[in-house]
Amino acid sequence: MTKLPLLHFHYHGHVTQAQEQQIRRTLEECYVRLGHWLPETVEVRLFDAPVQLAAFVEAEKAELGIKTLGDEAFICSHDAWRGSPRLLICIERLLALSGVAQQGAVSHEAAHTVLHGGLAYYVFRLPLDCVELARAKGMQLSLLQQVLYHCATAVKDYEVTRLLLRQGYEDCQVAFAQTQFLPSDEDRLAWSLARCHPQGGLLFFTGQLKTLLLGCPLELAGLLQLERCTDSMLTYIGPDERKRLLGLARSIAEQLGDDTHDNIRLTLRQVLLKLL
Fold it and tell me: What is the DSSP letter of 37?
């Protein structure tokens, strides 16, 4: 019999017992289906509203010296900054999704705790060849570090979708992916500010790889029309730029293996060669 992880729940704001129990059931069902290499414990923090999630993330980053950007805007997120897997779930954002998409979002995070449950999956050194390539193109290392973070999150989302599809999670992963391909006013504004600056454009494009690589296994399985989804999500950028970005995502996906760190290095190098 599969030994399930011990789930430690923490609450920020008003979270009902029914909400916790639904999330607990979804996590435990997912762990039963995944079945192998499960973590011993998982910390689950439930936030009733985005403002509380953002405040918590900001405080954690300040204490731990984390400099990544944007993860406070997620419906759910995962990390292992304190050495063991942790999930952060915003109840308000989660309940805005359909029931099947909610299952997809929580299962997605559960799979991250299985594949990426240790600190080694959150701390990455910049590969020397990528540092030299970036310097040759006049790119600052601070920007390269953020691009590396984007590449890492994209690769890990690809790996999670691939794993869940292998375990029969189809409908809920398609539903979850469709929520990720919705156009964003924040991204539209970011593009308007970045489009005339090559390095700003690079940061914008690599930020989109998270969604595109998440969708690649679904496209390969015949479950998602990735080009149509990309056109809908990025309707405000030119068709040639959309085609180039989608082509890069597909090319990267074809080369990804089973080693997360190798996958991230490959992705970062391809981004610097093709987009910078």
Answer: S
Domain final residue, candidates 71, 89, 123: 123
Final residue in a domain of this structure, among 80, 98, 123: 123
Which pairing describes strands 86-90 and 76-79: parallel, antiparallel, or unpaired?
antiparallel
d(CA 169, CA 83) in angstroms, rounded, equals 28
Instruction: Count the domains in the chain.
Output: 2
> In whole angstroms, what is the distance from residue 181 CA to residue 42 CA?
28
Give the mean model confidence (pLDDT) for residues 39-57: 95
What is the average per-residue pLDDT within 8-27?
96
Q: Are residues 131 and 249 in the same domain?
A: yes
What are the residues whose beta carbons fall under 8 Å from the beta carbon of 170, sequence distance 6 or more?
A: 221, 223
Distance CA 41, CA 32 (A): 14
Residue 215 in tokens: 């969708």
Report the pLDDT value the prediction gives residue 72, as an integer from 0 to 100.
64
**16-25, 70-79, 197-206, 244-253, range with the lowest pLDDT:** 70-79
Q: Is residue 241 within 8 Å of 204, Cβ to Cβ?
A: no
**Strand order in 6-12's β-sheet?**
6-12, 41-47, 86-90, 76-79
Domain check: are 268 and 149 in the same one? yes
pTM: 0.95
